[in-house]
Design a protein that fits this description.
Order of helices and strands: EEEHEEHHEHHHEEEHHHHHEHEH
Helix content: 40-55%
Strand content: 15-25%
Structural class: alpha/beta
Strand order of the largest sheet: 3-2-1-4-6-5
Oligomer: single chain
Distance between the termini: 5 Å
Number of domains: 2
Radius of gyration: 20 Å
CATH superfamily of the largest domain: ATPase, nucleotide binding domain
Mean pLDDT: 93
CATH topology of the largest domain: Nucleotidyltransferase, domain 5
Number of helices: 13
Shape: globular
């Protein structure tokens, strides 16, 4: 069994997953409870490895998964500033897990490492070189999901698919254009606040708006909270709004917010396809299959008419597929792969 920890501010989600991808146990805990949870799993003899998700590794973490040694959480403390609360939770879980089970195999998984491969034109903002050297660049989001989407499509269609539009569907959805396994563009930027609007974040925004808000008297902390927690679907509606509610609710006010989301989704679809030079497949991934199907149907209707090939104006050859999974299953798959290479045994 592997025990996995994923920040879900203000707490941590944990899952115990077997080698077949089945979630055996799961729950939510705070960072202080990780130590005791790990000790219980070790005592029960149900623990072969532990995995920890770091949402934002900046330029410090360039591998999607790597063994986690005791010095690494301290070395990664500088990354907390990139995404303070989730990253701090992740590092606290790592320290507690390492302390509770020093003899176990521990692995660090990072959601931004995949997008360090972005080509320079896609990775860089039009900022002075000195700021780029300070790490102000586009890091993307949900890299584990997008890499997994590529792997699923290639397993089914090798070698027919070289260009993929990957869409991760959840409360903070993102998209990626992938060519021969390498990301060439994505919707998320320095953080996931850039890109598609989400349940609580604004998405793409004119950068002079925060300056205007600061000049009007708001503090930087207030502006950060506004753009990342009080905006998006919920901010537009004036009350909490999940992606499911956005899709299913027939209230005219909700429909108006849904139209805004669909506008951004369609616009970014065009941008991703342009960056990849087209696509042979579209993969929609996420934890809730019905929401993925809803997004998939709209993408298919938008993309097929403009991606015809060999005279097929309707784009019937395009593969549009949904791959539902949990993040825990994806993390566990990567942990088992690396653990087996290292000579460890899963159960």
């Amino acid at each position: 069994m592997v025990l996995l920890f994923e920040p879900q501010t203000p707490a941590l989600r944990w899952q115990q997953v077997d080698a077949g991808g089945r979630v055996r146990q799961s729950g939510v805990c705070d960072a202080e409870a990780v130590h005791e949870l790990v000790i219980r799993q070790v005592a029960a003899g149900r623990l072969d490895a532990l995995g920890y998700l770091l949402p934002h590794g900046g330029e410090w973490v360039d591998q999607e998964i790597q063994p986690l040694s005791p010095p690494l959480p301290t070395l990664l403390s500088a990354a907390v500033g990139l995404l303070p609360e989730p990253n701090a939770l992740a590092l606290a879980a790592m320290r507690a897990g390492l302390d509770a089970a020093p003899a176990a195999s521990h692995f660090l998984l990072c959601d931004t490492a995949y997008f360090l491969q972005l080509p320079a034109p896609a990775a860089h903002y039009a900022l002075p070189a000195r700021l780029r050297r300070q790490g102000l660049r586009r890091f993307g989001a949900a890299g584990l999901w997008h890499r997994w989407a590529w792997d699923q499509v290639r397993r089914r269609h090798r070698p027919a698919v070289a260009r993929l539009l990957s869409v991760h569907v959840d409360g903070a959805s993102s998209m990626a254009a992938i060519v021969d396994g390498q990301p060439v563009e994505t919707t998320a930027g320095f953080t996931g606040v850039e890109g598609l609007p989400s349940t609580t974040a604004c998405g793409d925004l004119d950068p002079t708006i925060p300056l205007h808000l600061r000049a009007s008297g708001m503090t930087f902390a207030e502006i950060g909270r506004l753009l990342g927690r009080d905006a998006g679907f919920s901010g537009l509606l004036g009350r909490p709004c999940s992606l499911r509610r956005l899709i299913e609710d027939d209230d005219p006010e909700v429909q108006a917010v849904r139209d805004i989301f669909l506008h951004h989704l369609r616009r970014q679809t065009g941008a991703m396809l342009a960056a990849a030079g087209g696509a042979e497949a579209v993969a929609v991934v996420g934890e809730e299959a019905d929401l993925c199907e809803w997004v998939s149907a709209r993408l298919s209707a938008w993309v097929r008419p403009v991606l015809g090939r060999d005279g097929d104006a309707a784009g019937e050859s395009l593969q549009v597929q949904v791959f539902p999974a949990t993040r825990g299953q994806i993390m566990a798959e990567r942990v088992y792969q690396l653990a087996c290479k290292g000579g460890h045994h899963g159960s």
